[in-house]
Write a structure and sequence with these properties.
The structure holds two protein chains of two kinds.
Chain A lengths: L1 H5 L7 E9 L14 H4 L5 E2 L8 E6 L2 E6 L5 E6 L4 E6 L2 E7 L5 H19 L6 E13 L27 E8 L4 E10 L6 E12 L7 H22 L2 H7 L1
Chain B lengths: L18 H5 L4 H20 L1 H20 L15 H16 L6 E5 L3 E8 L2 E8 L4 E7 L4 E5 L9 H9 L1
Antiparallel strand pairs in B: 1-2, 2-3, 3-4, 4-5
The chains are: A alpha+beta, B alpha+beta.
Chain lengths: ~250, ~170
């Protein structure tokens, strides 16, 4: 399995890598806890809000769907790394994103650790019930492709009795990882392409585990490393050799 | 000064668009499944900066498409319809701002003829107007009546726009 750990694609289609760590919200942590967070962050991180959306609260009752923005603010968002790093400090957890161009796992993980240390220092030692590692890829394929299956191995199959032209799709697979006690959620969707000569497919791989009770950083980061190998395995399982050639 | 809060003032996902499908559901179980899926989908969107920008730009493109269908006198006060060039410039500006992780609050046709892209944060607002004569202007204003108007290409370059917006809106 060493190849899963060391495999690196020169043109990796990663648009965003995300580490998400939820904490059991303690009574002592509230929004005020993060008010001076910017001064504790590494240089270059600045708060950024109002220009990006946050969480919505939707309600579905009596056949009526209503949605409203979350009136109970839950945290702050900071952008750094020349706009390529986004970190959310929430009362119930921490999320770090690395946007394209993705560099290396070590760079991504170490920056996440650095920011987690700041978050951890603010909220104190808290139990971690959920950890997630998510990689969002976007494959830009030539618009005149013969068949998606030449590039993607995990794909919604249209009956051969039906017309094969496809204007769009959205597919989500929830795959239990029994050996890890974790879950993999694969979300695939056609999205707006960056150029008219390509079609774009998002391949969103989320490996996460709930019901944890982790307390040490060592346990947290060891879990993240395990998830990375599984994420790589899933990615390799979703693409073909043709795609490997495209991104190598 | 406290850092700005995460929650936005508006429904940036335009959940209205899900209504037609949700109204068609027939069984309580289907309702429940739909609701869970929606919550999960929204949470996944909110956690991802890339997808938030991606879907935000799709919504922006839809807004531009709607605006591009307006005819002259669309507001009953004789306003010119936005010309294709103004729509295209707005589209390019939105793409550039998207790369700087900035999404618009709303996009409207301008009564002066053109397209106005609005950004709002608390009591500070800004808009970029691309008018039909080919001029783009950044207007920044607050609730106290302070206004700053900069012409793109002469007062500031297009490349400086995102930084200006971020500095003003925080």
């Amino acid at each position: 399995m060493l190849w899963l750990k060391d495999r690196h694609y020169a043109k990796a289609p990663i648009k965003e890598a995300i580490i998400d760590i939820q904490i059991t919200k303690p009574a002592t942590v509230n929004l005020e806890s993060f008010e001076n967070a910017e001064t504790r962050l590494p240089p270059g991180y600045k708060e950024r809000t109002g220009l990006l959306v946050a969480e919505l609260q939707g309600h579905f009752a009596d056949g009526q769907f209503t949605a409203a923005t979350n009136q109970n603010e839950i945290g702050y968002r900071f952008v750094g790394g020349q706009g390529k790093h986004v970190v959310q400090f929430r009362v119930n957890g921490f999320t770090f994103s690395r946007l394209a161009p993705y560099e290396t796992w070590v760079q991504f993980r170490d920056e996440a650790k650095r920011l987690w240390d700041v978050y951890h220092a603010i909220v104190g030692s808290q139990s971690v019930p959920r950890i997630g590692l998510r990689f969002i890829n976007q494959l830009d394929l030539a618009a005149d492709l013969r068949d998606f299956r030449d590039f993607i191995r995990c794909y919604p199959e249209v009956s051969s009795d039906l017309p094969q032209q496809l204007a769009g799709f959205f597919m989500q697979l929830q795959l239990p990882q029994v050996d890890l006690g974790a879950m993999v959620v694969i979300t695939e969707a056609m999205v707006a392409p960056p150029r008219p000569d390509v079609v774009s497919v998002v391949l969103d791989i989320d490996v996460f585990k709930e019901g944890l009770n982790l307390e040490s950083d060592e346990e947290i980061w060891s879990t993240v490393e395990t998830f990375r190998l599984r994420k790589n395995l899933v990615f390799e399982g979703c693409i073909t050799n043709t795609t490997r050639e495209l991104i190598s | 000064m406290p850092a700005a809060l995460l929650s936005p003032p508006l429904d940036s996902f335009h959940l209205e668009r899900f209504k037609p499908s949700i109204h068609r559901v027939e069984t309580p179980n289907y309702d429940e499944r739909t609701g869970r899926f929606r919550e999960d989908f929204l949470l996944r969107l909110a956690r991802s900066t890339f997808l938030t920008i991606k879907y935000g730009l799709i919504d922006a493109e839809e807004a531009l498409a709607r605006i591009s269908k307006l005819g002259n006198d669309w507001n009953s006060y004789g306003a010119e319809a936005p010309c294709p060039e103004a729509i295209q410039v707005s589209r390019e500006i939105l793409q550039e701002l998207g790369e700087a992780l900035i999404l618009p609050t709303t996009i409207v046709a301008s009564a002066e003829g053109g397209v106005s892209v609005y950004f709002m944060n608390g009591d500070r607002n800004a808009y970029v107007e691309s008018d039909n004569s080919g001029v783009q202007t950044l207007v920044m204003y607050d609730q106290q009546g302070n206004t700053d108007v900069l012409e793109l290409g002469s007062d500031i370059s297009r490349a400086e726009l995102s930084e200006r917006l971020l500095t003003y809106l925080g």
